[in-house]
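stuck on whats below:

***
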Amino acid sequence: MNPEQVQIGFFRHYAAPGKNVPLHEFLNGIRDGKWAAQIQCLRAASEPAARDKLKKRLPAFMLSSTSAGGRKAADMLKHSGLLQIDIDHIPEPENLRDRIGDDRHILAAWLSPSGNGVKAIMRIPADIGQHKDSFAAAADYMRETYDHEIDRACSDCGRLCFVSHDVEIVTNFDAVPLELPATPLSQPSAAEGGEEGIRLNLNLHNKAPILHNKLFEEFESLTKIYRQLVERRYGRPQRGQRNAVMVEIISSCFFAVTPEFALAFADEFYNQHAEAFEDYGLEQWQSEARALMAGCGRSFLECLNQGEQAAFAGLGDEKEQTAFRICRSLANCESNATVPPPLFHLSCQQLSARLGVLEMKAWRTLKAFEKSGILEIVTPGIKRSAGKQGVATTYRWLLVQS
């Protein structure tokens, strides 16, 4: 990214009308001391009220978008592909600045105006409509990677970032956008049909319903996955839209998690919105969810090319079949321009969480896929460890229709 070409909003102070300037003016100003005198006064103030008053007099930038003169939704003109990260009131903020400054998704990191926090810029998809989803993914990422919560106010695309002074600001103009949770390019219908000779191990019938809370207690990562795939995507269901929501949940989760988890997610959604289902019994909801899942399985078989059909027929169990669907969906998803189809990122940890198996089982499944010609490794991943950020492996889906 060239900071001279990226435009962001600029406001002389909190209540002033805005204009648009290049990103490099903001970054250079922090490093070169353009606002050093004002920041020094703010940091020297002992009373919180005095600091707040001085802070509101500072110039501010709207990092995520250009502006038509204000900060309301109607004033958002063009998303910059940037997200403001705020982490406040931390010990040794210099250490955190340097740590996250090395992150491949972070374009810049510096000390906050008060000096007791860190601000950063993360690369995200340049889409105003996806800004809140990008924030949610960034919040999860920072929590998991650095064990820090970020200010939720940054979910607002018009959030202002006050200027600061930090001669040791860290910049990385080769930063890559954070990926959002992948969704399939097209979702299958629940149509009848199927391919003879290929058996789907969905294990959906003659099976006692899974109470939503039991699986969430058994698998620690399941709550986070549910929030990513369901809670943040679907609001309160209306009476005339309940079946449509079920179709969306089951059809999308069919490509993202093992069927057992998808059904549990449908149960959880029902329980979270029980007031909307007063005339719609849980048993009926569960029965229809199972039927829809089976229909998705039949439709999935119909969309496979010959090579994929042959490979899928040779898989041994439901977990391997789910892993196949996850990998195929990721390989066909155009969510990241740096990893175009049929390439995709996936770690053993991510796959194990979505399958509900140990990481070793997920690793063995991916290795079996490599051996059988389903996948090949393009760039090996790096396992996360103390003080070292993990990087997911880049794979190539080999069963592309020729």
